[in-house]
Amino acid sequence: MPRKAKAALCRAHNTPVVVESIAVDPPKRGEATVKLGACGVCHSDLSAITGTIALPLPLVLGHEGAGVVEEVGEGVTDLARGDHVVFSFIYMCGKCRFCAAGRPVLCLEQGRALTTPLEGTPRVRDASGAPLNIFSGCGSMAEYATVSAENLIKIDPKIPLDCAALVGCGVTTGVGAVFNTAKVQPGSSVAVFGCGGVGNAAIAGARLAGASTIVGVDLDGFVSETISLEDVEAAFHKMERGEVLRSVVVM
Whose CA is closest to 126, among 142, 112, 147, 149? Predict the structure, then answer.
């Protein structure tokens, strides 16, 4: 039976985000349904609202999520009901030539899980029964989400979900910039400017890389506020005005 849930939707570009009641289908083979605990409000979601990231509408927003597995579909063996998970917004098949070469971010199959699970048909519908797309295969700005199991990473249940959610994008973006773009090595000296949000993660990444000196400018907390789904529209406006680093929706 489908689960009823509230979700933040973009129905038209450059219009207010709406919170609606949706129906979330149970998982098919290779999928899992997650009860969300928290979801970060990321600039990438804002880019989908403005049309900078061209995804078909209507769209359930959210990709920086964490929650608890409610149900798994046939063939899913590495996740079970009750597992705590973080969402990954990039699907990785594990089988194509890039995945086999250790470069899963270039997975040839990831485009198939961009607005639906890998199988290709919607798992969420609005109150009228019309299908909805999900942001980057996640749609985690909702109380429930059904996604490909490959989009979920099991975590220690002791980690607070509002903190774990940020690992799905903000933290990994900052750490990845240090290792892949800046190519920080042991003994390097690193200066990070604008250290709120992703910048804080860049500082952590520089430390992991073995930098000998790390200078951070503008050190603020990573999370500016925790909000409800109904506050998402206001959070996007605060982001545009530079008033917050990261807002986190707590379900």
Answer: 142
In sequence order, the β-bridge partners of residue 81 are none
Divide the 251 residues of the chain into consecutive groups of 10 and give the mean pLDDT of each group.
96 96 97 96 93 95 96 96 94 83 82 86 96 96 96 92 84 62 66 60 70 56 85 93 87 91
Nearest to 191 by CA among 171, 208, 212: 212
Which run of H or of E encompasses 99?
helix 97-100
| CA dist 88 → 70, 168, 218 (Å) | 17, 6, 28
Please report, as a single letter, which amino acid is at residue 164. Answer: A
Joined together, the tokens standing for residue 30 give 């290779």
Beta strand 31-41 with 144-148: parallel, antiparallel or unpaired?
A: antiparallel
Two tokens, residue 217? 């400018």
Give the Å distances, CA to CA, from 55 to 47, 121, 123, 137, 184: 10, 15, 17, 11, 34
Per the structure block, which two tokens stand in for 86? 């973080």
Residue 9 Rama label (left phi>0; alpha psi -120 to 50; beta): beta
Q: How many residues does the chain have?
A: 251
Kindly give the pairing relationship between strand 84-87 and strand 65-72.
antiparallel
Q: Please report which helix (H) or strand (E) contains residue 24, including its range.
A: strand 18-24
- The predicted model scores a pTM of 0.83
pLDDT of 216 reads: 59
Count of beta carbons in the 10 Å neighbourhood of residue 238: 17
Helix (H) or strand (E) holding 248: strand 247-250
Contact 215, 107 (CB under 8 A): no
- In 45-135, beta strands by DSSP E: 59-60, 65-72, 84-87, 124-125, 131-134
